[in-house]
Write a structure and sequence with these properties.
The protein is mostly helical and 117 residues long. The protein has three helices and no strands. The protein has one domain.
Length: 117
Amino acid sequence: MTTAKPAAHRIRREDVVLWLLACTPVLAWIAAQQLSFLATRSLCGNGRRWILFLVTGSAFAASAAAGAASWTKWKRFSHGIATYRRFMALGGLLLAAICAVSILALMIPAAIHRPCD
């Protein structure tokens, strides 16, 4: 009898998902920072400062979702020895945590310093 091997396209798909989970928090942080910086002047002109919180809140949600998915992947890969997939999932989780804290730090100036005042 032969043992069944996983399909090659399934292995590549799993790797792509892990890379996306690792890149999503970083891209969300960069997008939140750039959009907040570029939109501040125009938002202050029309008095819609709440959009800054919407931008950073959605970036935080994307980072948290990627972190939760990375955590799920990491727990799923825990049955075997340390593999590169387990390392990628843990790296995605750590990146999500760092970027989530950085995104929350972007909310501080908008809330305290009030860039429109």
